[in-house]
Design a protein that fits this description.
Number of strands: 2
Radius of gyration: 24 Å
Helix content: 55-70%
Largest sheet: 2 strands, antiparallel
Strand order of the largest sheet: 1-2
Distance between the termini: 23 Å
């Protein structure tokens, strides 16, 4: 179904190939697009927020998803309790020695700060008398932390993504499609279940894009300040997100350059931007340096230096270039082409982005072109930066963990573009797009059915390389038919401890994990299963409701476009 565009066009919008003067303010009346018809539940943004929340609730396993996140949660716990950031028995496998010989983690402070207030509430909840007979894994505290954190990030991401697509000039139909594509068709779904830093970084980076773009159009200082603060929290989370800063700046710079006129010069815009962004960035870098000094007594080093020293202490045979010893071509082409980590296999929507750029680039508006180029730069920058890293792929992860966030940013716009240009592109491109979207949905759904280390354990027995996605589908069929042994699902897992074995031999959703572990009281399992089933039913009902609203044209009571996505 293709949404129809009204002939009306608000002031300041390009007509034909006429460019929009940057000096004109960008005015967009969201109340017209979001005007409820009959009931408030007809509001697309509210329905998208509810869908995002329900998806996050349904896919939770109750576990944090990785040892990295477990350690970051422990760091957050150490901020307000007497417990250490790293327990002595975890060394030397994890932790580095810092000031006064104490053990610290080697991560940024960003995710621990996010988890801190939720950890406080989760710990309080876990100590209530109702849970006196349940202290086993997954713990009440972990279940609460992952559910609340992932729901919060998912909802905010959906809302920011929706608003940003509207402001780029897409109609409601295409903007809704873009949000659903992000939630269901990219690795964003996998990292909603496995709570690494990826989705948090995605939210912060997309917020930077959205709010700083609004500043460019409205010249409201508050928008630029919010965007700069979001990117500042990015730096606290992972210092390599400095590349996200550059990508957002490139996005704005390209727009200003292509739309420049006599009323506003490029230099004036750049100076106005730097007056706000530089001080905000400096403040967040100072916070990062203070945290570094608190742990390691230095203002200039990063954790990589201490990480390297500790590892060399325990393994003097490490290469001289460690941890940057991987040949560049191995990491670079591995991220692009390897069957175990290729971004094109784990996020097929990026292929659709390339197809649409090839066939419709001249039709894109200036902001869309600028965003696609900035996102492409960001994706390439991450792939190149980590190409020489000792674990260039992110190790225990679904796909290339370091590049996946940038890939999602470059890929999610493909569905809105496909919907927008459906008539102009023809049947062949439309069919290709539908096939890629379908493949993306199946791959992302498969990614959450089992705990992510499953295929990694299998490859230690089967050897490398393996087509991981095909192996995942084989495992799903094997498990569903009760033929795990015949398909080699558990062969290598038998070498690992009971905890790992139990987690890779059950569907990776909270009720099934609780039942498999067998430590939760019956009422806890029954409550989790009931909530899970109700959440699935609510997700289906909400999605149908949103579809019916769009097909009925309930959102068409006002202008559907803020600016043209076609020059």
């Amino acid at each position: 179904m293709y949404a129809r565009f009204p002939p009306s066009r608000p002031a300041g919008v390009s007509e034909g190939r006429q460019l929009v003067p940057i000096s004109q303010a960008f005015r967009y009346d969201h109340s017209k697009v979001e005007k409820p018809i009959g009931r408030r539940f007809s509001n697309p943004s509210l329905l998208l927020a509810l869908i995002a929340a329900l998806i996050a609730l349904v896919v939770q396993s109750g576990e944090l998803g990785s040892s990295d996140t477990m350690h970051r949660l422990q760091t957050a716990h150490s901020f307000w309790t007497a417990e250490p950031a790293v327990f002595p028995n975890e060394y030397p496998e994890f932790g580095v020695h810092g000031r006064h010989g104490k053990l610290y983690d080697w991560y940024g402070i960003g995710q621990p700060l996010l988890l801190l207030p939720i950890d406080v509430i989760g710990t309080w909840l876990e100590n209530r008398s109702i849970f006196d007979d349940y202290r086993s894994d997954p713990t009440v505290r972990n279940i609460f932390v992952v559910c609340v954190t992932n729901i919060l990030i998912s909802v905010l991401t959906a809302l920011i993504c929706y608003r940003f697509l509207l402001e780029l000039g897409f109609d409601v139909f295409a903007a809704v499609g873009g949000v659903l594509a992000l939630l269901f068709c990219t690795t964003h779904l996998h990292y909603t279940q496995n709570m690494m830093e990826n989705n948090y970084i995605f939210l912060l980076t997309l917020s930077g894009f959205r709010f700083e773009y609004r500043w460019l159009r409205t010249q409201k200082l508050g928008d630029l300040l919010v965007g700069a603060i979001a990117l500042g929290f990015d730096l606290l989370t992972r210092l390599t997100t400095a590349m996200d800063f550059i990508a957002v700046g490139l996005f704005l710079l390209l727009i200003v350059y292509w739309e420049r006129d006599e009323g506003r010069r490029l230099l004036e815009t750049v100076l106005a931007y730097l007056k706000v962004v530089v001080p905000v960035t400096a403040l967040f870098l100072l916070v990062d340096r203070i945290y570094q000094y608190y742990r390691f007594g230095t203002w200039t080093d990063t954790y990589v230096r201490y990480f390297t020293l500790e590892h060399r202490l325990h393994d003097p045979t490490l290469p001289a270039r460690y941890p940057w010893e991987t040949p560049f071509h191995v990491g670079f082409f591995g991220a692009l082409l390897s069957p175990e980590k290729s971004i094109f296999l784990f996020d097929p929507l990026i292929l659709l982005t390339l197809v649409l750029a090839a066939f419709a680039w001249k039709r894109f508006s200036v902001p869309v072109k600028a965003f696609q180029l900035a996102a492409g730069f960001l994706m390439l920058a991450y792939v190149c930066f980590y190409a020489r890293y000792t674990v260039w792929s992110g190790d225990f992860a679904w796909g290339d963990r370091y590049a996946s966030t940038a890939v999602e940013i470059a890929a999610f716009l493909s569905v809105p573009l496909l919907l927008h240009f459906r008539k102009q592109l023809g049947r062949a491109v439309w069919t290709t797009g539908v096939l890629l979207v379908t493949a993306s949905v199946l791959i992302q759904l498969a990614s959450v059915l089992f705990w992510l280390p499953l295929e990694i354990y299998q490859m230690e027995d089967l050897g490398h390389p393996q087509f991981v996605i095909w192996l995942r589908f084989k495992n799903i069929v094997a498990f569903a038919l009760g033929r795990m042994d015949a398909w080699g699902l558990t062969t290598d897992a038998m070498q690992y401890d009971t905890w790992d074995y139990q987690h890779i031999t059950t569907w990776n959703f909270l009720p099934f994990v609780l039942r498999r572990m067998g430590d939760a009281p019956r009422w806890v399992f029954d409550a989790a299963l009931t909530a899970w089933a109700l959440a699935i039913a609510a997700l289906i009902a909400t999605t149908i409701r949103l579809r019916n609203i769009l097909l009925a044209g309930d959102t068409a009571s006002g202008p559907l476009r803020a600016s043209s996505a076609v020059e």
